[in-house]
Amino acid sequence: MRSAWLRGSARGAAVGALLAACVLDLVIADAEGELWGPAVVLAVGLVAVLWPASRRPAWLTPQLRTAVPALLSTLYTVATVVLDRESSFGPGELAVLLCLLFVAVRHCPPNRLVACAALDTLAFLATPCRRFWPLWSTAGVGLAYVVIGLVFVLLVGSLAAYLRSLDYRRAVAVDDTRREERLAIAADLHDFVAHHVTGILVQTQVARMMTSAAPNRPERLDPVLAGIERAATEALASMRRTVGVLRDTPEADRRPVGDLAGVAGLVENFAGRPGQLVALHRSPAVGDDLPHEVQAAAFRVVQEALTNVRRHAADARAVTVRLDLDGGRLDVSVVDDGQGGAPLPAEAHGGGFGLVGLRERVTALGGDLTTGPLPSGHGWRVHALFPVARA
Question: Looking at the predicted structure, is the pLDDT value of residue 256 above 50?
Answer without folding.
Answer: no
